[in-house]
Amino acid sequence: MERKVDFNATKLFISVVNAGSFSAASERLGVPISTLSRKINELEQALNVQLLDRSRQGVKPTYKGKQFYEEARLGVELLEDAQKSVTSAHKLQGKLRLSVPPNFSLWWDLLLEFQQRYPDIHVFCHSSERVVDLFEDGIDVALRMGSLNTDDVIVKTVMDVEIVFVASPKLLARYGTPETLTEMARLPIAAWETLNHGFFEWESGVEKVKYEPFFSTNNLQGLIHYALSGMGVAQLMDFSARPWLESGELVQLLPGVARQSMPLNLVYARRKHPSALVRAYLDFCAEWVEKLK
């Protein structure tokens, strides 16, 4: 006789996978570890399949567990959306787990306004250079820059970010204002570099120039500090440089000549039906970015 699958046990299983361990899920949910373990054991027995690999480091879904997780999460979200849609006092509520690149100040303003519109949505925002795994890290939507080639996720480009060269008037008084990339490469350069990646080449039309940075870092504030101090030319996102350009503390170099832009993408798991919270966030981002244009 086929045993029925417990809906509440399924929700607990999804929470444990998202949290990565029974202890983390217990803390998030306020449910004892013993209860979580018992309910998931019962779920595995009902399905007659092992869903989790358990170890001292935590838990990971088995191959069958991943399959069940994806389908079950979709079903749970659909059912919760349906329950909310027939409630007269319907409000979007729950927790949204996001990933945003470090030093991405533009998005903090967006998130402030998003939570003002949806005060019952709690947001966790992970900020790191590391490219998160949407499944392993339990991230609903990640913000990523640059071209992406993957079939595992859905990529929604929301805007193109212009990259500008800037320097302080002090530096230009000392070295002169460059008129070509070749001339600019002779100036001290403050460049972006991570532990595993540094690409020191500029390209504009037929001109391609390699350069050696005087200073490099993976910290945006460090680049801005060097530029403002007159220590080097920096390449910044336009919205990061805008306050200093407007105040005159920085000057844009080679405007219209060395134009460069990168796509800004929202990335989320490839599912048939994104949750109501994810849809609200995607729609809000598109609306908010449109107002910037």
Automatic annotation (TrEMBL):
Residues 5-62 form the HTH lysR-type domain. The keyword Cytoplasm does not apply. One of its GO terms (biological process) is DNA-templated transcription. The keyword rRNA-binding does not apply. Keywords: DNA-binding, Transcription, Transcription regulation. SUPFAM superfamilies: Periplasmic binding protein-like II, Winged helix' DNA-binding domain. GO terms for molecular function: DNA-binding transcription factor activity; sequence-specific DNA binding. Pfam families: HTH_1, LysR_substrate. InterPro entries: LysR-type_TF_proteobact-type (IPR058163), LysR_HTH_N (IPR000847), LysR_subst-bd (IPR005119), WH-like_DNA-bd_sf (IPR036388), WH_DNA-bd_sf (IPR036390). Belongs to the LysR transcriptional regulatory family. This is LysR family transcriptional regulator.
